[in-house]
Every structure is written in C-alpha cells, then in structure tokens.
Amino acid sequence: MGTIATNSLTLGYGDSVIIDDLNMEIPKGEITVFIGANGCGKSTLLRSMARLLKPKQGSVVLNGENIAKMPTKEVAQQLSILPQSPISPEGLTVLDLVKQGRHPYKGIFNRWSNEDEEAVLEALDSTNMLDLKDRTVDSLSGGQRQRAWIAMILAQKTDTILLDEPTTYLDMTHQIEVLDLLFELNEKYQNTIVMVLHDINLACRYAHHIVAIKDKQVHTQGRPEEIINGGMVQDVFQMKCDITYDPMFGTPMCIPHGRGRCLIKEAVAQSRMQAAKVH
C-alpha cells in the first residue's frame, strides 16, 4: 500500500501562497477526500502530490522518498493521477487509452508483454469496460468515459491513486457509479486513494478520512463521523447547516440553510389559512 505525506510544504503561483508550511500524512490503504471552499488549494495540493507543481518550500514524500528527487518512471510506477476533465486524442479507442497506463513499464526496446496484456484486461474487467474496449473514448457517455480513464490508471498498477474532482460534470447517477467503482476498487486492492470532492455528503459516504482545508492549512481532518459538524462547516464554507445522518449509510449528512422552498413553512401557512376560514 502506498504512503504519501507532506513536509513543511508551501505552494503557490508567482508571489501568491496557496498552501503554507503544511505537514500532513495520508492514511495508507484508505480513501481520503479533500474538501474546502473554492480556491482554498485542494487541487493545488493534489497536483503537488503528483509532482505536477514544484513546491516553493518543503517536500512531498512518496513511500519514504522525496518525490522531487525520484526518476519520473519510478514515480509513475508508484503513483497515478486522474486530472479534472482529462481529454483524449480524437478517435482513440478505450483499449488504446487503457494501454497507455503501461507506458511507465516500457523501455526503448521493451515489447508488449503478457504481463502488460493481463494488466490491461484486468483493468477493463474491473471497471466493466471490456464490452466497450473497441469504442472510441469520445463516443462514450460521461460515466463510461470516467470509467475508461480509471481503467487506464488501474492498468498503471500503482499503490497510490490521485483524482481531481472525478465526478465533475456528471449527473447524479454517474457520480454514484464512479464513486461506487472507486470504493469497490479500494476494498479489492487496498490502494491509497486521494480525491478532491465538492459534495460534502458524498465525501462523508465514501471517505474513510476527510481533510478540510482553509487559510492555507488543514483546518481539521479525521473520520467523517468525528469531524463533520455544523461548526466545522460554518468555519470552512461560511455556511450554516444542520447535520443529521444518512438514513441508508449512517454517515453524516449536511442540510444547508438557505432561502428555497420550505414545505414545513408552506404546510403551516396553509393550516393557518384553513383555520382562519373556519373562524
């Protein structure tokens, strides 16, 4: 199982600091979800963990080594990332996309091996994409397309998987489909999975560990049932809410306050109107 941590990590763009002096260790073999307000640095932190963003200070440590000092191929054999809204070349088939996950294991003279073939077929089977392997990626539905990309990173055979908002632009059905798949894969292979999600309730349902980010630091982290409460949501998102429990899963469920329709208020108003007519 993969381990990933940050040591005094400072990130930013130009003179702007987004993450400041962050020390954090991701639980291995579990699903961790980053939450926080827009612009707080969730995706920036995830990109730095994949060595896509050079730190201003500090380091990311992957399986005991400073990731900045590791050879690119070695990093790619231990860690994979699915960026937000990835784009594939026009006309690329699902099979060819998934085969790209084997590139970290190929040298100049390396031929396609039985091990490569088995890894690709296993990835397609695990994501229920075998029947669609000859379809072009751009012909798939949103949920199918995400499953194809997840198959590619599974073929990469890494212990650590990073996903930046994997449910973006998906409808409710496909959001659940993708998150169910990731949860099942974690249970089967015990990969260390780190995701950025915007939906607190989905984060609570699927995460073993949640990291809430605010003011360039970790505001709080832990099991959803330990850290998700009205005070934390108010602090991190500037939003008042009530916290109840998901009736199906028993996980925390956030009910935000707002100005939408309130059926309870409508029912009370109707009752009063009826009572007034009687009198």
UniProtKB/TrEMBL annotation:
Which GO MF terms does the UniProt record name? ATP binding; ATP hydrolysis activity
Keyword Cytoplasm among UniProt keywords? no
Q: Which residues form the ABC transporter domain?
A: 4-240
Q: Name one GO cellular component term.
A: plasma membrane
Record GO biological process:
iron ion transport
**Gene3D superfamilies referenced in this protein's UniProt entry, alphabetically:** P-loop containing nucleotide triphosphate hydrolases
Q: What is its main location?
A: membrane
**By its UniProt entry, which SUPFAM superfamilies does this protein fall under?**
P-loop containing nucleoside triphosphate hydrolases
| Localisation | Cell membrane
Q: Keywords for this entry?
A: ATP-binding, Cell membrane, Ion transport, Iron, Iron transport, Membrane, Nucleotide-binding, Transport
In what way does this protein cross or attach to the membrane? Peripheral membrane protein
| Record InterPro entries | AAA+_ATPase (IPR003593), ABC_transporter-like_ATP-bd (IPR003439), ABC_transporter-like_CS (IPR017871), P-loop_NTPase (IPR027417), Siderophore_ABC-ATPase (IPR051535)
- Give the protein's recorded name: Iron complex transport system ATP-binding protein
- Please give the organism: Paraliobacillus ryukyuensis
